[in-house]
Amino acid sequence: MSSTFHPFLPETAAWRHLGARDGFEVTWFRPAAGGHVIDGCTTAVEDGRSWAVDYTIEVAPDWTTRSARVHGRSAAGSWRTVLSADGAGRWRIDGEPAPHLDGCLDVDLESSAMTNTLPVHRLALRPGSRAATPAAYVRAAGPAVERLEQEYARVADRDGLPGFDYAAPVFDFSCRLGYDAAGLVLDYPGIATRAA
After folding, report:
1. Which of 7, 27, 37, 91 is the most exposed place for a label (fewest CB within 10 A)?
2. How far apart are CA 166 and CA 99, in angstroms?
3. SS3 for 59?
4. Which SUPFAM superfamilies match (predicted)?
């Protein structure tokens, strides 16, 4: 399935995190083996605690996540985790099988607005379509990797730009995400807004 977005990503993008936390995220994109390598960093203060998360995510040409290397720091210390995926829904965490993630095709970092780019590119939904998109969810405060059930529903374009209704029932959270023509989040209500 081909993406509904412009085929070219910018070299870099940035988000200001507002609402749930105060902070900033910067990401760099580069092509690799027909897919992309995405390097990024988020620093934030949330509930009075500061943290920083660095990440490198590799996605295949079909936008399935193939690996994610995540390093976090906070007053509690540093942590690292490495996720690898076969593109068919089977994962390893730090080299060990992770059957609780079976069926997930995307990684979702709690610290990142960028990772909401991955499933919308992979799915290429048309307006009126929806899909369940469970993800390997990496918490910002530590190396825990959980299964996150979520759903994206494509809504009618507004001002020529795509939008999606997003829901993560475990957090009792839903919102409408606005995207640019490259499929990068412009507005994530209560979480982040695009800065560059």
Report:
1. 7
2. 25
3. strand
4. PA1994-like (SSF159275)
